[in-house]
Amino acid sequence: MPRPIDEAERLLASMSRAEKAELLQAVVRDLGDAFPGIESRPDICGGDPCIVRTRIPVWALEQARRLGASDAELLRAYPTLRAENLANAWAYVRSHRAEIDREIHEHEAA
After folding, report:
1. Domain boundaries in the chain?
2. What's the pTM value of the predicted model, to 2 decimals?
3. What is the CATH number of domain 34-109?
4. 41: left (phi over 0), alpha (psi -120 to 50) or beta
5. DSSP-assigned letter for residue 106
6. 3-state secondary structure of 28
7. Would you state the pLDDT for residue 104?
8. Mean pLDDT per 10-residue run, the chain (110 residues)?
9. What is d(CA 78, CA 51) in angstroms, rounded to the nearest whole number?
10. Strand partners for 39
């Protein structure tokens, strides 16, 4: 009997990039308040939530998006990022809007 993960990988191979992105967003929503790929550590970017294993803060990505940057442009600007990282960041922003707004404001004032 095939494992569910094997079936999922088979289905992924037949999906378009857009369908994969949509699926990824659904998975992120399903994870609830667990934000895989996002970490906050006091010794990295002053504790601002960042993409794991980078020093790219979520607030900076969100500010760029608000200023009109597309996901494709962000992926080109940050070659270490993957679409999954952005999906995680956008899910985090949706759940922590006030925190992200505050961080953007604080960094603009600095």
Report:
1. 34-109
2. 0.69
3. 1.10.10.10
4. beta
5. H
6. helix
7. 96
8. 84 89 77 76 92 95 97 96 95 94 92
9. 11
10. 50
